[in-house]
């Protein structure tokens, strides 16, 4: 078994027998198929949410979801995560601080019925958004760094290479080096896993880097990025109008259609430094 195969077997994908047709010729073989299971989150014994997710990096998922949804104020409020498997799926039992649990009870009604689209089932318009911090000023990021990260991203997507069915989210340094990457069948889950991994590994000052995602930039993706204190989100596809207005209010630089040397900046272009724009150049400020 190859090392990549061993990674997949641990819970990211399952091998299935398939019958294919290419160029008029039929064949039988085996394909890796992305795993998707029901993952329930319980806080201090109280069931809170059920998500469909790829069963990899679930401790990161539990921590990242809790942070990005405002349940935890910081990593220290999570005491323990126990993973319990059953025929129905996986339950993540989180033990959290009393302050976090009180915060959760105040917000539970706003989470009723939420699904992969992010907001389905919210009980009133007031539950759609929450107060987000305004991101502080920082050292401008280079467009070339975003281009570098997007170009390096595909080679690091192990699960996507095998299955063609998952999204990735990655945290990148100021220079565009990818320092951490997580994958999942759900774009929100991939971002939550990344945020949890960032908190768990105590990466250097995350406000000096940025996040890239292999999906559209939805409102909730923007919310989660701002909650993580990261000043720029770059997506391979388009943002929504609500994502743009939320990014503008929070002072998040929001980039869509980041492909090759091309990109569209939808919010706060001042967070991107002017630079020599050449495919083979090194980032150099022209100001």
Task: Describe the protein in words.
With 287 residues, the protein is an alpha/beta fold. The chain has two domains: 37-127, Ubiquitin-like (UB roll) (Roll), CATH 3.10.20.10; 141-273, Cytidine Deaminase, domain 2 (3-Layer(aba) Sandwich). 28% of the residues lie in helices and 31% in strands. The protein has helices at 3-12, 58-68, 98-107, 143-152, 158-163, 187-201, 219-227, 241-250, and strands at residues 13-22, 25-34, 37-43, 46-53, 78-86, 89-96, 141-142, 167-172, 178-184, 210-213, 232-235, 253-259, 262-267, 272-273. The strands form four sheets. A six-stranded mixed β-sheet has the order 9-8-10-11-12-13. It has a four-stranded mixed β-sheet with strand order 4-3-6-5. A hairpin with a 2-residue loop joins strand 5 and strand 6 (89-96). Helix 2 (58-68) crosses helix 6, helix 6 (187-201) runs parallel beside helix 7 and helix 7 (219-227) packs parallel to helix 8 (241-250). The radius of gyration is 20 Å and the shape is globular.
Rg, please?
20 Å
User: Biggest sheet, in brief?
Assistant: 6 strands, mixed
**Adjacency order of strands in the biggest sheet:** 9-8-10-11-12-13
**Estimated share of beta-strand residues:** 25-35%
Provide the residue-averaged pLDDT. 87
- The residue fraction in helices comes out at 25-40%
> What ranges have pLDDT less than 50 throughout 5 or more consecutive residues?
112-117, 276-287
């Amino acid at each position: 078994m190859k090392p990549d195969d061993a990674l997949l077997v641990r819970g990211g994908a399952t091998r299935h027998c398939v019958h294919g047709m290419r160029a008029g010729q039929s064949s039988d073989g085996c394909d890796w198929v992305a795993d998707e299971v029901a993952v329930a989150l319980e806080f201090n014994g109280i069931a809170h949410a059920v998500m469909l997710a790829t069963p990899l990096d679930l401790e990161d998922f539990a921590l990242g979801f809790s942070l990005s949804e405002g349940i935890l104020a910081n990593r220290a409020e999570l005491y323990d995560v126990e993973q319990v498997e059953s025929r129905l799926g996986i339950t993540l039992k989180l033990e959290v601080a009393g302050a976090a649990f009180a915060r959760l009870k105040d917000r539970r009604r706003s989470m009723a019925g939420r699904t992969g689209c992010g907001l389905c089932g919210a009980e009133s318009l007031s539950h759609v958004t929450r107060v987000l911090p305004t991101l502080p000023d920082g050292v401008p990021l280079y467009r070339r760094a975003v281009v570098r990260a997007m170009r390096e991203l595909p080679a690091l997507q192990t699960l996507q290479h095998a299955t063609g069915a998952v999204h990735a989210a990655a945290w990148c340094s100021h220079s565009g080096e990818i320092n951490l990457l997580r994958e999942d069948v759900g774009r929100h889950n991939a971002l939550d896993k990344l945020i949890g991994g960032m908190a768990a590994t105590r990466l250097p000052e995350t406000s000096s880097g940025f996040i890239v995602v292999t999906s559209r930039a939805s409102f909730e993706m923007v919310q989660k990025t701002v909650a993580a204190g990261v000043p720029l989100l770059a997506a391979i596809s388009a943002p929504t109008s609500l994502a743009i207005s939320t990014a503008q209010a929070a002072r998040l630089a929001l980039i869509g259609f980041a492909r090759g040397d091309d990109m569209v900046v939808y919010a706060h272009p001042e967070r991107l430094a002017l630079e020599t724009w050449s495919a083979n150049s090194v980032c150099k400020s022209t100001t």
